[in-house]
């Protein structure tokens, strides 16, 4: 069954929610319960197989309690080795528990240090982006502003989105959760014709329309929590790829099928020009106040 690009990306929300929740309601149909069921079944078989009921007849003469006191074997002679063996088992169990607890403490300390490093980097990036925005130049070129207005009209976006330019980066990107803004490099603004500018700005506005900045923020929190898990890194990378494909599908839906081929050619031409600095169109995942 073929799923649309939007639906494939939307399914990643289930993964994000599951990774962000430390505890999740269990289900009897969950695959995580299979191991528990198998373990219980094996234990039942082991107990039934070792049951001594079939070896000891109830009415056997050997099970009768002897009447003479001198025939009773003192229990202490047999209990002493068993007590020593039980003590050794308890000591071994206690030692293993201590080693396990110490190992958990070490791993927890490493995870906490990594999480703090990620949060520090997150806050540092917010500060740098906020400071960087103040140094950028607002776009005043009527040609670019008219293309921007046309793009917003096509996407039905009425919220004002600021447009800045400069030499800060070589790829356009959109940033800001509360107050969104788009960065347009000077080289892109000067070299690309209006038709290609329409495609580039449409791509960034599609990210805004689809709330992709919020998706990226959630994935950033997931990486902060699960930074030690390589599978999570691979999953977030694949989710980002699905997001870009869904964004392109949104652009082609808004612009129409007649713009599908020119849009694809614009993306290819853009990558050829600026892939030396950074492959792909950048999208910031952090908010700006």
UniProtKB/TrEMBL annotation:
Bilayer-crossing regions: 100-127, 213-236
InterPro entries: Beta-lactam_resp_regulator, Peptidase_M56
Protein name: M56 family metallopeptidase
Species this protein is from: Brevibacillus ruminantium
Keywords carried by this UniProt record: Membrane, Transmembrane, Transmembrane helix
CDD domains attached to this UniProt entry: M56_BlaR1_MecR1_like (cd07341)
Entry keyword annotation includes Calcium: no
Region (Disordered) residue spans: 51-78
Biased composition (Basic and acidic residues): 55-64
Residue span, Peptidase M56 domain: 3-271
